[in-house]
Amino acid sequence: MQQLTEISATAVATTVHRLRATFATGRTKPVAWRRGQLRALRALLTDHADELQNALQADLGKSALEAFTTEIGFTVNEIDHALAHLTSWLRPRRTRVPVALAPARARIVREPLGTVLIISPWNYPVQLALAPLVGALAAGNCAVVKPSELAPATSAVLARLLPLHLDQEAVAVVEGGIPETTVLLEQRFDHIFYTGNGSVGRIVMNAAARHLTPVTLELGGKSPVVVEPGTDLATAARRIVWGKFMNAGQTCVAPDYVLAVGETAATLETHLAAAVRALYGDNPADSPDYGRIVNYRHFDRLLGYLKDGRTVIGGAHDRSSCYIAPTVLADVDPGSRVMKEEIFGPVLPIVAVPDLDTAISFITERDKPLALYAFTASAASKRRLVTQTSSGALSFGVPNAHLTVPGLPFGGVGASGFGRYHGEYSIDTFSHTKAVLDKPLFPDTLRPAYPPFTALKERLLRRLL
Ligand code: NAD
Asked: 120 CB under 6 A from ligand 1?
């Protein structure tokens, strides 16, 4: 492992201390400061959209439109939603006090946590660094953002632009890989928000334990798609292909594999192949809308999956450009590697299952997924999937789209992570929900609760409580 020089390690520690000192002054608490930062972040995204799109193109071959919808526009929407609702989200909420405690007033106050660390991955390097930052700023925190070193162009743009637009005393970017993140994790933070794989999630949690720092872990896993007979298979296939091959399959909530129920497998295969051709043409390598694999390591890993089933469509690849065609595999053995590991690339295995019972057992016997998708015309099947499976999210009729609904929480469960964000859930994540009780000293209604206890006091208290 590359070592970090002592000077840069000191620089990281100094940065975190500077932010902690800023928080201590109270500068980030006023709603006006928070709104100002959110507006500045919005301006960064809109004024520098071209620069960000170019960086995303360089890192991931992302098309300009996909970069806009899934990264820049997405984050702008998150900001607009926060700006529209911030006042009501931050309003203290009253709650009733029990008769025994009256007169008194109780309220719930959301207070910022302090200085938080946001560690983000390479696959949506703008959205996954900045959407958590929206929550951190809206909640009134200072933040260190650590972009992924595997999306170096985007990391460089963020490192340059964030200090230009945001309050430098409250927000800092630390670029780098494992050595820099390791030094960051040694610092004391008030929350760590990590998005990435589960192995590093464990490292983050271990480091956080040292300071008793709360963490949010936004992890991944294998998100299944259940397809039942009786649904419109052509539309289902189009939507599955859209969700799966967006960003060349490198999307945490992308459909990982299909569970084709009953007779659907054969027909679905044909529709999936047709949908790939319709969306990306006969040679997806020529499509300006199709992305590339982030690096050789992931390219080689993904190539290993291609032998795990019969190729329905795709399979073409070119290492020099990190291109792997959108690939659908059929007759896949559930015990094969492609069905054991998170794919996180453009390979879609289809596993045929006889009925919904088998599909549900297949899902529940494995790690809880980040998302579960189903295409079914049956209300009873929908009910069963809601009540008999557990996943970060469950979506019928469309993959990936749930995270664009601002009122829905986004996060995993079990192996797919814990904690949630987006919209008001981000405020919850980056705030302490403080209980405030205010009881006047006069009249002193607590007298009956004070010892020495008498029979009269006991009768009174037993009736009141
Ligand atoms: P990555 O390699 O970019 O790593 C994520 C971050 O962890 C980076 O900032 C990196 O510098 C840091 N890191 C890596 N190794 C480290 C170490 N040993 N110690 C400390 N920090 C370290 O991204 P990745 O993990 O390959 O991302 C892909 C995974 O993330 C997939 O499993 C995917 O499903 C998941 N993911 C989840 C979400 C979500 O919102 N739940 C979103 C995107 C990706």
From this structure: yes
Residue 11: pLDDT above 50?
yes
Is 0.90 surpassed by the pTM of this model?
Answer: yes
Any ligand 1 atom below 6 A from CB of 197: yes
Query: pLDDT tens-digit profile of 63-85?
Result: 999 999 999 999 999 999 999 99
pLDDT value at 379 more than 90: yes
* CA dist., res. 306 & res. 315, Å (int): 7
What pLDDT, in 10s, does the model give residues 206-224? 999 999 999 999 999 999 9
Phi, psi of 197 (to 5 degrees): -90, 160
- Is the pLDDT assigned to residue 107 strictly greater than 60? yes
Q: Are 412 and 217 in contact (CB under 8 A)?
A: yes
Distance 121 CA to ligand 1 centre (A): 4
Residue type at position 23: F
Q: Is the dihedral of CA 52, 53, 54, 58 positive or negative?
A: positive
Q: Quote the tokens at residue 21.
A: 């000192």
Q: Is 132 in the pocket of ligand 1 (CB under 6 A)?
A: no
Sorted by where each starts, the structural domains of the chain and their CATH numbers stand as: 6-219+417-433 (3.40.605.10), 224-406 (3.40.309.10)
* Integer Cα distance of 49 and 3 in angstroms: 34
Q: Which pair of structure tokens corresponds to residue 198?
A: 């589960």
Nearest 5°: phi and psi at 137?
-70, -45
Q: Find the 147 Cα to ligand 1 centroid distance in Å.
A: 10
Q: Give dist(CA 192, CA 184) in Å, integer.
A: 10
